[in-house]
UniProtKB/TrEMBL annotation:
<feature type="domain" description="GH11">
    <location>
        <begin position="31"/>
        <end position="219"/>
    </location>
</feature>
<comment type="similarity">
    <text>Belongs to the glycosyl hydrolase 11 (cellulase G) family.</text>
</comment>
<protein>
    <recommendedName>
        <fullName>Endo-1,4-beta-xylanase</fullName>
        <ecNumber>3.2.1.8</ecNumber>
    </recommendedName>
</protein>
<dbReference type="InterPro" id="IPR033123">
    <property type="entry name" value="GH11_dom"/>
</dbReference>
<feature type="signal peptide">
    <location>
        <begin position="1"/>
        <end position="19"/>
    </location>
</feature>
<feature type="active site" description="Nucleophile">
    <location>
        <position position="115"/>
    </location>
</feature>
<dbReference type="InterPro" id="IPR001137">
    <property type="entry name" value="Glyco_hydro_11"/>
</dbReference>
<dbReference type="GO" id="GO:0045493">
    <property type="term" value="P:xylan catabolic process"/>
</dbReference>
<keyword id="KW-0326">Glycosidase</keyword>
<keyword id="KW-0378">Hydrolase</keyword>
<comment type="pathway">
    <text>Glycan degradation; xylan degradation.</text>
</comment>
<keyword id="KW-0119">Carbohydrate metabolism</keyword>
<dbReference type="InterPro" id="IPR013320">
    <property type="entry name" value="ConA-like_dom_sf"/>
</dbReference>
<dbReference type="Pfam" id="PF00457">
    <property type="entry name" value="Glyco_hydro_11"/>
</dbReference>
<dbReference type="GO" id="GO:0031176">
    <property type="term" value="F:endo-1,4-beta-xylanase activity"/>
</dbReference>
<keyword id="KW-0858">Xylan degradation</keyword>
<feature type="active site" description="Proton donor">
    <location>
        <position position="206"/>
    </location>
</feature>
Length: 221
């Protein structure tokens, strides 16, 4: 990634948010508001959403930082308007003092409509839900592969039925590293979990359930 125009959006200004269910049945949906600005650079997507609590999000020229406490549900991050099988590098840290907190590569495709996670860190199960269907080894760790069907849920195409594909890293690395997304996409395809045309793709921090902690990352790819 190169430079990034800062974009901070108050919760009251957010429109057209999408809900992304999380693993905990008692947790609120992972909701996302796509606030985009097309730039002549690779890093051109900022996400910033919260439902409650204290979430202080600061985009930077090459990443983001966030401090949070008592958070009901939030997701913030930086990435690309259009996803691809790129190698993504992230570097920084996450601390979690309460609730559920995770750091992932997160994105959507269309035709078919798919929501996906490559989860690098969580202080719990994070996005893992549904049925475990396989595993892969990539970037120094094994990952569990999960699939989960969402029925009549909000998506980037409105209320729809769609699949979630989820890779969950077993050797958690809140400090960052390289994520070879192609390895995940290929492993999913071998299991019949096919992606479509890429929409946005981000590195993001999510929290829910009275979440407390902080994240700070630089992102490139």
């Amino acid at each position: 990634m190169v430079s990034f125009t800062q974009l901070a959006v108050a919760a009251t200004a957010i429109v057209g948010s999408y809900a992304v269910p999380v693993a905990d049945a008692n947790a609120p949906d992972f909701e996302l508001s796509p606030m985009t600005k097309h730039l002549a650079v690779r890093q051109d997507y900022t996400q910033n959403y919260k439902t409650g609590g204290n979430v202080n999000f600061s985009p930077t020229n090459n990443g983001y930082s966030v401090q949070f406490s008592g958070a009901g549900d939030f997701v913030v991050g930086k990435g690309w308007r259009t996803g691809s099988a790129r190698n993504i590098n992230f570097s920084g840290s996450t601390t979690a003092s309460s609730g559920t907190v995770l750091v992932s590569v997160y994105g959507w495709t269309t035709n078919p409509l798919v929501e996906y996670y490559i989860q690098e860190y969580s202080n719990g199960n994070g996005a893992a839900q549904g049925q475990q269907v396989g595993s892969l080894t990539s970037d120094g760790s094994s990952y569990q592969i999960w699939k989960h069907q969402q029925v009549n849920q909000p998506s980037i195409q409105g209320t729809s039925t769609f699949w979630q594909y989820i890779s969950v890293r077993q050797s958690k690395r809140p400090g960052g590293g390289t994520i070879t997304t192609k390895n995940h996409f290929d492993a999913w395809a071998k299991l019949g979990l096919n992606l479509g045309t890429h929409n946005y793709q981000t590195v993001s921090t999510e929290g829910w359930g009275n979440a407390g902690g902080s994240s700070q990352y630089t992102v490139s790819g």
